[in-house]
Structure formats: C-alpha cells, structure tokens
Amino acid sequence: MGPLPLTLEQLQEHLGELLAELLLGAHIAPAQENATPIVGAFGRVFEAMTRLDTAPPPHTHETARSATQLGASAYRLLNTAVDCLDRNEPTRGTQLALLHVGFAYWVARHGGAIPDLAVLVEHLARLDSRDTTARIDPAELTTVMLALVDNLATQRARTRTHDRGDPRDPWRLLHLHLRDAAQCTRRNDLIQHAHTRLLRHLPDDVAGCGHSAAATPSARTAAIPETTRETTRDTRLGEHRRESHKPTLH
Q1: Are 177 and 171 in contact (CB under 8 A)?
Q2: DSSP H helical ranges for the chain
Q3: How many CB atoms are closer than 10 A to CB 132?
Q4: What is the Cα–Cα distance from 46 to 194, expressed in whole angstroms?
Q5: Torsion 88-94-98-104 (CA) sign
Q6: Over its length of 250 residues, how does the chain's per-residue pLDDT go in tens digits?
C-alpha cells in the first residue's frame, strides 16, 4: 500500500493508484460516466496545490483559505471516486484512510481548516490499528497527528465544541491516538510532544496516560502558555529583588 503520504508527491502517487483503478474499470457503471471527469478535476486540484506549495512564505489568511477550499474539493472528489469502485475490496479502507489523512496533513501544513474531525479520526484509528496492510511507520503517524492537533487547536470553535463528558469525542480520541502512536515509536521526544498536547488540551485525561513523560518538569512547563510562564518568571524575579533588599538582622 505504500508509506503514509507526507509530501504532495507521495500524495499524488497514492492517488494515481486509485485513479488508475478507476480508469481501468471505466467500462463498468457507475465509473463509466465519472472516471474521466474525476481524473481531470483531480488534475486541476493538484495544480493548485502545487502552486500553493511553491508560494513564498509567510503563509497568510489567504493561503489558509485556499488550502481549506482545495482540501474540501479533494475530499469530495475522493469520496466520489471511491463510490465508483468496490468499497468491499480488502485494501479499500486503508487506501481511503491514507489518502484522506494525507490530504488533511497537507491542509494542516498550510493552516487550513479540516472538516469533519470525526471522519478523520476514524481513518487515523484504522492506520493506528497495527493494520499489516497499511504498514504505517508510527513515527510518521505521530508526526502527522502532532500537526493535525496543533492545527485544530488554533480553530477556537473546535475547542469550544469539545464535549468533556463524551469518551468518544473526536477531539479527545485524536489525542489518545496520538499518545498511542507516540508510545509505539519508543522515542522520548515524540512521546513527550504527545503528552504535552494532552496536558495542554485535555489535562483530565493525563492521569490515564500510563507514561512518566507526562509528569516530567519539561512536559509540564511546555504545556503552560508562554504568557503565563512570562508572568510567573516576572513575579519570581520581583520576589527575589524584594528579598535581597531586606535589612540584615545582627
């Protein structure tokens, strides 16, 4: 099935396999009428994605808006293409998950909005299920999920709709999948990055993490917003100065 598509080129390779299958079955309805238009539309989407990839930094609100629109177009075309194929084919679910996550990662890297978090989490769960068909590198999967979490955290509406009482809440599940994938890497840096996000966004779930990285001073410090850390440092500095100016008793 191939690696997780982390670049636009890898995403094109994965999509090329699906579109080739679509064209080969173009004599079978419903692919008969849709194959050529879908391939052409995907070509235009990738041309626009390439232009956005090669645009000079910094990324702007316009860049994020374009990424959001292109991601929505890609998802729509992808679902249409899969509907024209046999969804019961053994590797279809993994193929769809790789492409969906690949497009979401591209959108996140450009600051765009990711629609339907619940669907994305379902695809991530498939890739994080140790599926031998996918053969996903846990370090790559962790890298992708870190980017997705950071992207979604900037969308304030997403955090406001988080249902703390629902154990199946997609925002919570995304963090738990991130934690599990990070632990599979056995890399302390990725494990700590994952626990830092848990501490910052879902502190109530940290107790169930089962890993000491969440309790390390560096992880706790990283989870505190920078403005709070600055205020704390200023307060401590002021206290130190007051102590140093107290008269000495003999």
Answers
A1: no
A2: 8-24, 31-54, 61-83, 92-109, 117-127, 138-153, 156-160, 170-185, 188-201, 217-223, 226-244
A3: 8
A4: 31
A5: positive
A6: 568 999 999 999 999 999 999 888 755 666 667 788 999 999 999 999 999 999 877 768 899 999 999 999 999 999 999 988 888 888 899 999 999 999 999 999 999 999 889 999 999 999 876 555 556 899 999 999 999 999 998 875 555 556 666 778 899 999 999 999 999 999 999 999 999 999 998 887 776 554 444 443 344 444 444 444 444 445 444 554 444 444 443 3
Ramachandran angles phi, psi of 68, nearest 5°: -60, -45
Whether the CB-CB separation of 1 and 133 falls below 8 Å is answered with yes
Which residues touch 194 (CB under 8 Å, ≥6 apart)?
142, 146, 175, 178, 179, 181, 182, 183
Work out the number of other CB atoms within 10 angstroms of the CB of residue 239. 10
DSSP letter (8 states) at residue 207: G
End-to-end CA distance of the chain: 79
Quick count: other Cβ atoms within 10 Å of Cβ 44? 12
**CA-CA-CA-CA torsion for 231, 236, 242, 248, nearest 10 degrees?**
180
Nearest Cα to Cα of residue 113 among 57, 162, 75, 169: 75
Cα separation, 105 vs 115, in Å, equals 12
Give the global pTM: 0.78
